[in-house]
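Deliverable D4.2, example record:
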Amino acid sequence: MLLLAIRTIILYAITMIAMKAMGKRQLGQLQPFELVVILVISDLATLSMQNSGVPIVNSIIPIATITVLQISIAILNLKSEKVRRVSCGTPSVVIKNGEILEGEMRRLRMNVNDLLEQMRSKGFFDISEVEYAVMETNGQLSIMPRAEKRPLQPNDLNLDLDYERPAITLILDGKVNERHLQESGFNENWLKKALAKHNIKKTEDVFFASIDARGHLFCQLKAKEPEQGSPRPIREDE
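Output generated by the structure prediction step:
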């Protein structure tokens, strides 16, 4: 049993390293050849896990080989359009000028119900609102709505907005992120004073705190009792 556990840990670590080396992709964003690689690697890993008579190297070498091949193909995809077309395919326009392209739908073996389902997942419940729809190589549908149906943009109102950036996390579960604090241009003395304005004496009492591009602090204290829920968050822009 101990040997089996050790073999499992080793193969798990090897598999995780291989997946990490191949890059970060969500399951829904995988290209066909990437999905095949994941399935093959999982089978190779379980081969030595299930049968202790199979040398563990019989799984490690194929996993390493496939990882190198996948990275090589990914590099070639960056360099060559032809390789990218072969390995990943090309996007397909399924709605053009508001018209469903039946021939393209048949080529993709996709019916109208499949199209409507993907449209609903993007927030479009009426096909008449769509000008163009493109089936991407990873199976996701990209939609360009009709001009009169698209969301209102600041440029439509001639608004000049301030610069925005994602909020920076300063405290997570009572621990101050020193690197993020420095990146935001502040220090711990400033943070303590900012918390003190809201009667917060210790950073250990803070569940989460962040600061946005305008310098507004968001802060939520830890719940005293788990079943009571967290106190109301503090927002300096309110």
